[in-house]
């Protein structure tokens, strides 16, 4: 029965698990996505292009992608720092600190948005400190980035943390005994190992940021051409029963995100190859 | 791949599918209603700020119906943004009646075939049992001296209003401003557009919904004036303290008509037409109108109107039909892609 190429695994159950995977992937991802495609087939190509490249829509793509990228980058740096502290040091309250990292996952995003706006608006605790300097935190792209940073930080910490845990301190000690400076040790020994998870964390935080709606609408101010994010425009089209238009905007956004994800994944594979 | 494996995959697919289908089917045991002694269930799909109104009205109607027909009726409410609620009904939420913020959202349900044509003539007053209007909520003492629409575009005045493209309720705000400007300028559309453009230049935060704007104005303390539905303005004043805000009535505003309709397909399918129609009709009764007035909606019945005359100052009100020729036209001209609202922002 067995064809030459396939090798029987040690553990049974391939058929069962694969069947479930295919089914769930279909139900949860593929079918909704194809419904998305079907919805937009009400549009001709010309109309689709016109809707998806409307100046206001393009501006919203720009806002969404730039703020998500900025938030992803900042999260990558801060997330590494957080993971480092959590793995390498012992301090009282560490367990609580560790658990708190996951809070942004559990908190309804609208709650996050409302509380962030309360703090960062020009009358809030932090916002009022920046107002005299002429820097407006809430209701500006900075506000959107802040909200996305909040949403994205657990992704970076949780991808970097396990890798950092597995990293042998002996290797660093060996580097040190061989005369490497601290910076050199970090750059040549630690960082290459961490680069793949950092990239994954960035990709997750970034893509989560592109789609985030709930928290952003409260803090962004939603000014067309300036702080209007693409998901809001999609909602706005739905509100006018323009299903096809909404789908057109969503599709192009999806396409851009997909290409970016693909690029990041390729980059990651390359990094992994050079490391190993 | 081996045959056994393929079989295994297929088998598990079937298994999993049946689990999913089983879960879906379990709630299909819907019983058809009818006959005394059984409790009738009615689902009223409404928009956000009517929650308190329908909480009291449902009790009143249940008592009335039991007395009239000896039938118990339990009314369930669903609230959310008007447009979202409309889409939910179109997508299959089994509403028996809809009570939404604007006719456009009910028109959309009609287009899907669930509501028969001519719903707006089904009940009196354009099927709007209670009305409202757009007023200004200002900080106590009205420090910026805002009296009318043209004060909103004065130097240094910041206006808070939701985005009319994401909030159905806020479309009334926009149209009220437009109608005022039109009347001030002898129906000169270009001037009206200029006024509305200036007005939205004074808006620094466009929240996605009415509650969001209220939060921005009340909790964050941003802006000098909030454009709000009259009932929302009264609620804010009542709940947040009359020592903090004042309500200013402009010289003229729009008559906001939040309409109601029976969802014909759904009630006929389950034999609930009689009670659903009575439910909406009773909104026009003395009791229904009083409950509306108590919840700061303008009653349409003269006797109740007279009783609450103090609460609802008599200002000049124009309707959407008079100035804009109905929702379909207003929507197309102002809020569609490339409509006037979008142009305001593209022109910058």
UniProtKB/TrEMBL annotation, chain A:
Transmembrane stretches, start-end: 21-45, 65-87, 99-121, 133-157, 189-210, 243-264
Boundaries of every ABC transmembrane type-1 domain copy: 61-264
Originating species: Paenibacillus faecis
Entry GO terms, CC: plasma membrane
Gene it is expressed from: cysT
Membrane-topology annotation of the record: Multi-pass membrane protein
Protein's UniProt keywords contain Membrane: yes
Keywords annotated in UniProt: Membrane, Sulfate transport, Transmembrane, Transmembrane helix, Transport
PANTHER family in alphabetical order: SULFATE TRANSPORT SYSTEM PERMEASE PROTEIN, SULFATE TRANSPORT SYSTEM PERMEASE PROTEIN CYST
Designated name of the protein: Sulfate transport system permease protein CysT
Location in the cell: Membrane
TrEMBL record, chain B:
SUPFAM superfamilies: Periplasmic binding protein-like II
Subcellular localization: Periplasm
Domain of life: Bacteria
Signal peptide range: 1-23
GO biological process: sulfate transmembrane transport
Molecular function per GO: molecular carrier activity
InterPro entries: Thiosulph/SO4-bd
PROSITE patterns with a match to the protein in the record: PROKAR_LIPOPROTEIN
UniProt keyword Signal present: yes
The keyword Transport is annotated on this UniProt entry: yes
Alphabetically ordered keywords of this record: Periplasm, Signal, Transport
Entry's Gene Ontology cellular component terms: periplasmic space
Entry similarity comment: Belongs to the prokaryotic sulfate-binding protein family.
Name this polypeptide is given: Sulfate ABC transporter substrate-binding protein
């Amino acid at each position: 029965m067995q064809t030459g190429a396939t090798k029987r695994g040690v553990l049974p159950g391939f058929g069962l698990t694969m069947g479930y995977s295919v089914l769930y992937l279909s139900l949860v991802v593929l079918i909704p996505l194809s419904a998305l495609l079907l919805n937009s087939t009400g549009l001709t190509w010309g109309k689709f292009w016109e809707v998806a490249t409307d100046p206001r829509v393009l501006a919203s793509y720009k806002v969404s992608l730039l703020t998500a990228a900025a938030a992803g980058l900042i999260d990558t740096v801060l997330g590494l720092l957080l993971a480092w502290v959590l793995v390498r040091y012992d301090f009282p309250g560490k367990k609580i600190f560790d658990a708190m990292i996951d809070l942004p996952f559990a908190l309804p995003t609208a709650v996050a948005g409302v509380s962030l706006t309360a703090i960062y608006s020009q009358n809030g605790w932090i916002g009022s400190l920046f107002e005299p300097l002429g820097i407006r935190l809430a209701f500006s792209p900075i506000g959107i980035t802040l909200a996305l940073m909040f949403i994205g930080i657990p992704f970076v910490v949780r991808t970097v943390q396990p890798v950092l845990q597995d990293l042998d301190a002996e290797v660093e000690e060996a580097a040190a005994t061989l005369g490497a400076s601290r910076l050199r040790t970090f750059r040549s020994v630690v960082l290459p190992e961490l680069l793949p998870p950092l990239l994954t964390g960035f990709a997750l935080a970034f893509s989560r940021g592109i789609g985030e709606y709930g928290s952003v609408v409260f803090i962004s101010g939603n000014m067309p051409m300036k702080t209007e994010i693409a998901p809001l425009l999609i909602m706005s089209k739905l509100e006018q029963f323009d299903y096809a238009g909404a789908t057109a905007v969503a599709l192009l956004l999806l396409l851009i995100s997909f290409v970016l994800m693909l690029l990041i994944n390729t980059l990651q594979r390359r990094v992994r190859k050079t490391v190993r | 791949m081996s045959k056994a494996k393929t079989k295994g995959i297929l088998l598990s697919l079937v298994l999993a599918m049946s689990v999913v289908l089983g879960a879906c089917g379990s709630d299909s045991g819907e019983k058809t209603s009818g006959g005394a002694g059984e409790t009738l269930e009615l689902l009223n799909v409404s928009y956000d700020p009517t929650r308190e109104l329908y909480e009291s009205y449902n009790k009143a109607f249940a008592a009335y119906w039991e007395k009239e027909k000896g039938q118990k009726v339990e009314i369930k409410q669903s609230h959310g943004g008007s447009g979202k609620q409309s889409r939910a009904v179109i997508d299959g939420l089994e509403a028996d009646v809809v009570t939404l913020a604007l006719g456009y959202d009910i028109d959309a349900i009609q287009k899907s075939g669930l509501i028969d044509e001519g719903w707006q003539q089904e009940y009196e007053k354009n099927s709007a049992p209670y009305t409202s209007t757009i007023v200004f909520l200002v900080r106590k003492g009205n420090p910026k001296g805002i009296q009318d629409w043209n004060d909103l575009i004065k130097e240094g005045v910041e206006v808070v209003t939701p985005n009319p493209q994401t909030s159905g309720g806020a479309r009334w705000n926009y149209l009220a401003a437009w109608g005022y400007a039109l009347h001030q300028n002898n129906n000169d559309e270009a001037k009206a557009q200029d006024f509305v453009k200036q007005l939205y230049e004074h808006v620094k935060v466009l929240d996605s919904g009415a509650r969001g704007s209220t939060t921005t104005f009340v909790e964050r303390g941003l802006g000098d004036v909030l454009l709000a539905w009259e009932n929302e303005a009264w609620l804010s004043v009542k709940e947040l303290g009359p020592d903090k805000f004042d309500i200013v009535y402009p010289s003229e505003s729009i008559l906001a008509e939040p309409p109601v309709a029976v969802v014909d397909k759904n009630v006929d399918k389950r034999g609930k037409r009689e009670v659903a129609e009575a439910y909406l009709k009773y909104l026009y009764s003395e009791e229904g109108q009083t409950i509306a007035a108590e919840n700061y909606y303008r009653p349409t019945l003269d006797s109740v109107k007279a009783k609450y005359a103090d609460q609802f100052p008599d200002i000049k009100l124009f309707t959407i039909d008079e100035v804009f020729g109905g929702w379909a036209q207003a929507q197309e001209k102002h809020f569609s892609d490339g409509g006037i609202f979008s142009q305001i922002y593209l022109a910058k």
